[in-house]
Amino acid sequence: MLFQIPDVLSVDELRQIHEELATAEFVDGKTTAGWYAKQVKNNQQLKRNVGQSLESIVKAALSRHPLFQVAVRPKQIHSLRFSRYGVGMSYGTHADNAMMGRYRADVSFTLFLSESTDYEGGELVIEGADDEQAYKLKAGSVIVYPSSTLHRVNEVTQGQRLVVVGWTHSLIRDPAQRELLFDIDTVRRSLFAQHGKTPEFDLLSKSVSNLLRRWAE
Ligand SMILES: O=C(O)CCC(=O)C(=O)O
Ligand SMILES: [Fe+2]
């Protein structure tokens, strides 16, 4: 499942992140790339352990969002990287590593920190079997996509692209099961909003709980 959440960060949170990143030390992004991704990764990343408080802001913002909760079912949001692309930088086609330390990467996200008008190029391109889609979101908005896709970041030709990328280990490993749960839960919530706690709502709630009991790991 691929989806966007506009304005997942508040204006204040975005400002705080920009303030801290303005003076922070960035290092070559190749240090955290897998052996083949190193060949195509040309960007900079915030030095490890520097951005703990910024990471907390991002994790909390995603965690509190109902769509992220229901669509992703996060067990752990992990491996956040504040990444910077100056002119000439890009990240060529790759799939994300399946494991990052002890966590699985099921679902990837890119949270855009720069305004899209602040740079040229720098689109996140998600490649399908016979087509591809380019994304360049406004600052504070996030795109969430399966970690299993091939994707790339086009070269920045002007300005600077700041993003935070990260991964989620989902309680539900299988994307098809995750989607079934999402659909049923969405209908359940909509029924509740329209008619309150009806017997139909109770049955759907029971199904969501029982499917989670079968599938969650
Ligand atoms: O910067 C982005 O939008 C994506 C970066 C990426 O694909 C990665 O870090 O694995
Ligand atoms: Fe990636």
TrEMBL record:
Segments forming domain Fe2OG dioxygenase: 76-170
Protein name from the UniProt record: Fe2+-dependent dioxygenase
Originating species: Leptothoe spongobia TAU-MAC 1115
One term of GO molecular function: iron ion binding
Positions in coiled-coil regions: none
GO biological process: DNA damage response; intracellular iron ion homeostasis
Pfam families given in the database record: 2OG-FeII_Oxy_3 (PF13640), PKHD_C (PF18331)
Amino-acid positions noted as binding 2-oxoglutarate in the UniProt annotation, renumbered to this chain: 161
Binding positions for Fe cation per the UniProt entry: 94, 96, 151
Biological classification of the source: Bacteria, Bacillati, Cyanobacteriota, Cyanophyceae, Nodosilineales
Keyword Endoplasmic reticulum annotated: no
